[in-house]
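Good morning C.,

I know you're traveling, so I'll keep this short. The sequence:
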Amino acid sequence: MSLLNVQDIHVYYGSIHAIKGISFSVEEGEIVSLIGANGAGKSTTLKTISGLMRPKTGKIEFAGADITTMKAHKIVAAGLAQCPEGRRVFSKMTVQENLEMGAYTRKSAETETSIEDVYRRFPRLKERYKQEAGTLSGGEQQMLAMGRAMMSRPKLLMLDEPSMGLAPLLVEEIFEIIGELNRSGTTVLLVEQNAQMALSISNRGYVLETGRIVISGTGDELLRDDQVRKAYLGG
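The tokens, ready to paste straight into the viewer:
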């Protein structure tokens, strides 16, 4: 059974038909990428899975349970966390306080262990644990957003544009961390405009165009696909 199974979902913004009957799955232990141009429906798909939006029709199953109409905080408690586009850290809170907010569905006794785990993965955050999140660099804020999402100990971590606005060296570091998280047991659903980097670490990928999945395959297959190369990989 797939860890995540999205079945024929249709999502609207008012009268605008944003997601037009997409279906895909994520198996436990995989990294799966959704790639596509701006406005293709990638972020809307993640928001719908995480309960921030509702599909008009279709079904979403996670770990064998129907979460289509489940409230967002209960979806987090069930083991599915999202790291949003644009970081969205609590700018006036410290690094430590941001991480504690990520553990609100957990027992307080478990929080300290989880924070130490985040600091082990992101040593720069440990150095800045008393610093207000709004004063961090873009790369540090991205690390904090990922660490905050990891605080709920998710079975599936959804990452929305983790490389956006970052320098190339930081992009490489973020993708190395994503790979490490996956190797340590976290399944990852990745939305990313840097298709080359995303597909290079992905088991499988799906290409979205105007709310529809138009191509799917393994990461290697999509990297070699002429249509994908021309549209998203610069040749």
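Safe travels,
E.
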